[in-house]
């Protein structure tokens, strides 16, 4: 049954490579369906269940997720922790997103507005002066500070721009999974936001780590998917997790971030740490996972393309159209979809 979606995707490519055009992953979403705030209960979301083999759609609640698991399944989750990476300059004129420490006093950052931050430009952040040492091809800045800076002391959780609002009192907790452990992400693995400690205790599961990078906010800007270059993200898989994943009869990935790591490492899965810039899109067929729990993603995004590689582009867009008709809540704080 898992081969059906791969065959559909391959068929799409054979019919003129429609699956390789960015415009073919577009859809119209009413603004009111963007979930700008989390629901009162983490596990209170709706869950669209998409059966790839039969193309059948069910409308369920996330609390029913365990009912779709078999005794020999293994649920794999991403335990990265979002860091308070958004910081403003002391005069509030420049916004920085601290992406990666390159040394004791050197950081890779995104800055806004970028036009003011050319090589040699200076700004004061957290009481110390920083100088732009380089502008990288993706627009990121390498900033050298006179003294060590720690964004965690004054930073805030970097909410996705499409929420269109400032960080609120509940975001520090709710834009973080209950199992978040390893600091390093600038965006949450949002499919994991639905889980409660009680549900985790009731299902077979294990963890890996992928630090979600700033590229998750960036749209695909090439017409041909083959010309798009993914950002690299750091990952880690323990020997214990790798052994359990390899022994599982069916691997249920929670989130596109988890799916990317598993596909990048291949089967059998090996433990280790590293970086991956794998870009998964049709007609590529995923081989390392058997089911996927994921939220609803932005039009023309690499995340939607990964989902389309797993379920087939046409079937995925049909499911999205159904979710819009049924008034599902979209994006990070929204509802989810289980693809079997």
Q: What's the total count of β strands?
A: 17
Order of helices and strands: HEEEEEEEEEEHEHEEHEHEEHHE
Low-confidence regions? 1-16
Strand percentage: 25-35%
Shape descriptor: globular
What's the CATH architecture name of the largest domain? 3-Layer(aba) Sandwich
Q: What Rg do the Cα atoms give?
A: 20 Å
Main sheet: strands, sense, barrel:
9 strands, mixed
Structure description:
With 340 residues, the protein is an alpha/beta fold. The model is unreliable at 1-16 (pLDDT under 50). 19% of the residues lie in helices and 26% in strands. It is globular. The protein folds into two domains: 3-82 and 159-339, QueA-like (3-Layer(aba) Sandwich); 86-153, Thrombin, subunit H (Beta Barrel). α6 (302-311) crosses α7. It is built from seven helices and 17 strands.
Brief overview:
The chain has helices spanning 3-14, 171-174, 197-202, 239-247, 256-265, 302-311, 313-325; strands at residues 46-51, 56-61, 73-78, 80-82, 86-88, 95-101, 106-112, 122-125, 128-135, 141-145, 182-185, 205-210, 233-237, 250-254, 272-276, 291-295, 336-339.
Distinctive features:
about 350 residues; alpha/beta; QueA-like; Thrombin, subunit H; 2 domains; 9-stranded mixed beta sheet; 6-stranded antiparallel beta sheet; 7 helices; 17 strands; disordered N terminus
List the topology elements:
Elements: H1 3-14, E1 46-51, E2 56-61, E3 73-78, E4 80-82, E5 86-88, E6 95-101, E7 106-112, E8 122-125, E9 128-135, E10 141-145, H2 171-174, E11 182-185, H3 197-202, E12 205-210, E13 233-237, H4 239-247, E14 250-254, H5 256-265, E15 272-276, E16 291-295, H6 302-311, H7 313-325, E17 336-339
Parallel strand pairs: 1-17, 3-12, 3-14, 4-11, 14-16
Antiparallel strand pairs: 1-2, 5-6, 6-7, 7-10, 8-9, 9-10, 12-13, 13-15, 16-17
